[in-house]
Amino acid sequence: MRARQTSRAKQTSRLAGAATLIMAKILVVEDNEMNRDMLTRRLQRRGYEVVIAVDGAEGLAMAQSESPALVLMDISLPVLDGWEATRRLKMAPETKSIPVIALTAHAMSGDRERCIEAGCDDFDTKPVEIARLVGKIEALLQRSKMQ
Ligand code: MN
Fold it and tell me: Which H/E stretch holds residue 144?
């Protein structure tokens, strides 16, 4: 009886651990409604919780208020562009450890350098290839879990 309870407790805690990983909250900062909806649906289907912001300033505010596990940051955004929003996010003590993946519209040669300079942890190009993007998301979530 006792052994059985213990093994059930172990199973429960293992499930809780898995659920934490699966339900990681992702903040999607994207001004284009179509891209935003598509990305949200695809991420939700893979078990992520998704919160959205439609410009750089709102993205910055929601990084503070929602404490997401990771931010997907479009670069071409109104109010504050993705570079500037990321720079500010990485300057604030409360949000600087949240991993940021920049999403750029085209693989311009200077984007990797700008990405590093702004403090992004990784970047990917649009149109998004979801399997590749999820690979990058999971790598960063694993890394922040180990810290
Ligand atoms: Mn955009």
Answer: helix 130-146
Cα separations in angstroms, 16 against 8, 22, 23, 66, 74:
12, 10, 10, 21, 32
Cα 107 to ligand 1 centroid, rounded to whole Å:
15
Tens digits of residue pLDDT in 66-122: 999 999 999 999 999 999 999 999 999 999 999 999 998 766 678 888 888 999 999
Give the predicted TM-score (pTM) of the model: 0.84
Give the residue with greater pLDDT, 5 vs 140: 140
Task: Please give the span between the terminal C-alpha atoms of the chain, in angstroms, as a whole number.
Answer: 37
Domain boundaries of the chain, sorted by first residue: 22-146
What's the gap in Å between 114 CA and the centre of ligand 1? Answer: 17
Collect residues with CB below 5 Å from ion ligand 1. Answer: 31, 74, 76
Distance 76 CA to ligand 1 centre (A): 4
Q: The CATH number of 22-146 is which of 3.30.1490.190, 1.10.1660.10, 3.40.50.2300, 3.90.550.10?
A: 3.40.50.2300
